[in-house]
Write a structure and sequence with these properties.
The complex is a heterodimer of chains A (about 280) and B (about 300). Chain A is built from 11 helices and no strands. By secondary structure, chain A is an all-alpha fold. Chain A starts with 6 loop residues before the first helix and ends with a helix. Chain B has a domain of about 170 residues: Rossmann fold (3-Layer(aba) Sandwich), CATH 3.40.50. The chains are: A mainly alpha (about 280), B alpha/beta (about 300). Chain B: One of its GO terms (cellular component) is plasma membrane.
Chain lengths: ~280, ~300
């Protein structure tokens, strides 16, 4: 029967089976709480009758998800906002830091890629700054910028700049000399060459860098928001941990994954649009 | 002698040889090309053909010497000198049609869009590319089709001089034949001056008015300029019947196989090393059967 199905259909069935089995194992692994009347007197004296905080079963998480997703944008004060609002804040921070990084990294990467001298001059700075954990910038950013919101955006900026910068420089430097010669024999000016030949030739490498950057930015925003607090999905996770609401913690972890996947697939679409075969 | 349309004067190219010295690829090479002429240059790899081509295209600078076209010195690349590269050099992210439009737009920036497109389609049709094919990307075309696009792009720009750098080098023999015919056809309708590098003797005889023969490097030089005394229009199956065909061919084979090596490294002191003109014409001078390409047939003028 399975033989008649396409590879995609078979993979979908397998995924579904894995999901259901995983959820069942999870559900079954949560020990049932004994009801108080079933306990011996000794057990009751030892305090075992009190409800223990355990990892919530998937059924609870699903209920929570339904509840949250059916009203994602409610706002009931600073500590009680809908998941949609929290994610919205996070995306806003990621995108503003990321766009600023792109505005700096892509032109600078072009310059570095076009000129051997610029490449060699910038390289030591890039090599030293790139491996720094973005959160290590946080104290300095808070001190200089004096604003936690802007500091979070700065952290996103600094972590997304490197892959875009390096990939742009690499892509531009690697443009085939033949294509540059085509531009030269057609008497294209340097600006025209940059936009009509070098940019499309380097676009797949540049977009790959942008895709890596958006992934890193989304990883970092969660940690940054745990530090700065106030709003955002990272703050929400930490706040629910403080509330000991593990159901919400698990639900928000899943939401972080889903949003990250959507951001990544948006860039995958872009990547396909600029791809070319030689 | 009046100045030819394209004149290469005392061209010298030296490169550092990596051990502190210099390697002279060619020295004081001089030759000319007339307007409307189809000239092929034959020589072994490394003799500097591609260097000459790059200098003519303006993509490289000679160590010394000048190239003049229409009396003006060539400096840098120009739309007046169109190039067809061996590896096609199409932009892979553009469709076939857009690749040609890219060239036409650069040449005629004032033309309205539909005129540019019509012009591009016209030239693609001349090399046999019509219909849906023009919307395919270069990666979806065969090598022969890609080179056709490249030829269409070059001809559409009406350059004063067309440079072909081993355009058929990467193609199989059958495809090469078809595209040679197409090149002859599209060239026949124009007054286009063509300078072409090739490794293929038969291709050179089929296409050229004149073949320049280069000796091996170092100190390579353009030793001979062989006139192809076979009337046009030529056809690959018919030219082999022409009495001059094999005499010319033997002369070329003998040069490339033997004399180019003997003359290699030979440094001739001189201001202007112009090639010796060789004219082989069986019809003009009767052949001695045993020695078909020895002096009686070589009327050296100049």
């Amino acid at each position: 029967m399975l033989d008649n199905l396409s590879i995609n259909q078979r993979a979908a069935i397998l995924s579904l089976v894995m999901l259901v089995v995983g959820l069942l194992i999870w559900e079954a692994a949560i020990p049932a709480q004994k009801a108080a009347e079933d306990l011996t007197e000794y057990e009751r004296l030892m305090g075992l009758g009190q409800e223990r905080a355990g990892v919530p079963p998937p059924s609870d998480v699903l209920v929570k998800a339904w509840e949250q997703l059916s009203d994602p944008f409610y706002d009931a004060g600073p500590n009680d906002k809908g998941i949609g609002i929290q994610i919205g804040y996070s995306i806003y921070r990621v995108l503003s830091g990321y766009l600023m990084a792109a505005l700096v990294a892509i032109p600078l990467g072009f310059l570095i890629g076009m000129s051997r001298v610029a490449y060699k001059a910038f390289n030591p700075f890039i090599q030293v700054l790139r491996p720094i954990s973005p959160l290590a910038w946080m104290p300095l950013a808070l001190f200089i910028i004096q604003d936690s919101e802007a500091s979070a955006i700065f952290v996103i900026f600094i972590c997304s700049i490197w892959p875009m910068l390096i990939n742009t420089a690499f892509g531009v430097a690697g443009v085939r000399q033949d294509w540059v010669n085509v531009a030269r024999t057609h008497e294209l000016g340097s600006l025209k060459t940059a936009f009509t030949v070098i940019l499309p030739a380097a676009a797949p490498t540049i977009i790959t860098g942008m895709r890596i950057s958006i992934g890193i930015a989304w990883l970092v925003i969660v940690a940054a928001e745990m530090l700065v607090g106030g709003t955002g999905i990272g703050y929400y996770v930490w706040n629910e941990w403080n509330n000991l609401d593990l159901t919400s913690v698990i639900f928000s972890i899943l939401m972080i994954g889903v949003v990250g996947m959507l951001l990544d697939s948006a860039f995958a679409v872009l990547q396909r649009a600029v791809a070319y075969a030689e | 002698m009046s100045k030819p349309f394209l004149s290469i004067e005392r061209l010298t190219q030296r490169f550092p040889d990596g051990q502190g010295g210099t390697l002279t690829v060619f020295e004081n090479a001089s030759f000319g090309i007339e307007k409307g002429e189809f000239v092929c240059i034959l020589g072994h790899s490394g003799c500097g053909k591609s260097t000459i081509m790059n200098i003519l295209a303006g993509l490289a600078e000679p160590t010394s010497g000048v190239v003049k076209m229409d009396g003006l010195e060539v400096a840098g690349p120009s739309l007046d000198r169109g190039v067809v590269f061996q590896n096609y050099s199409l932009l892979p992210w553009l469709s076939t049609l857009k690749n040609v439009i890219f060239g036409v737009k650069a040449r005629y920036p004032d033309w309205p869009r539909d005129k540019v497109e019509a012009h591009a389609r016209d030239y693609l049709a001349k090399v046999g590319l019509e219909g849906d094919v023009v919307h395919r990307k270069p990666s979806q075309l065969s090598g022969g089709m890609r080179q056709r696009v490249s030829i269409a792009r070059a001809f559409a720009n009406h350059p004063k001089l067309l440079l072909l750098d081993e355009p058929f080098g990467a193609l199989d023999a059958l495809t090469r034949g078809t595209i040679q015919d197409e090149l002859l056809k599209i060239w026949g309708g124009t007054e286009q001056t063509v300078f072409m590098i090739t490794h293929d003797i038969d291709e050179a005889i089929l296409l050229a008015d004149r073949i320049l023969l280069m000796t091996n490097g170092p100190y390579a030089r353009v030793a001979e300029s062989v006139e192809i005394s076979i009337p046009r229009p030529r056809n690959r199956t018919e030219i082999v019947e022409h009495p001059n065909y094999y005499t010319i061919r033997n002369h070329l084979v003998q040069f490339l196989g033997q004399r180019s090596k003997e003359m290699a490294g030979e440094r001739i002191e001189g201001e202007d090393l112009r090639p010796e003109t060789v004219r082989i014409d069986q019809a003009a001078a009767p052949a001695t059967e045993d020695n078909p390409d020895k002096p009686p047939l070589r009327a050296v003028n100049e």
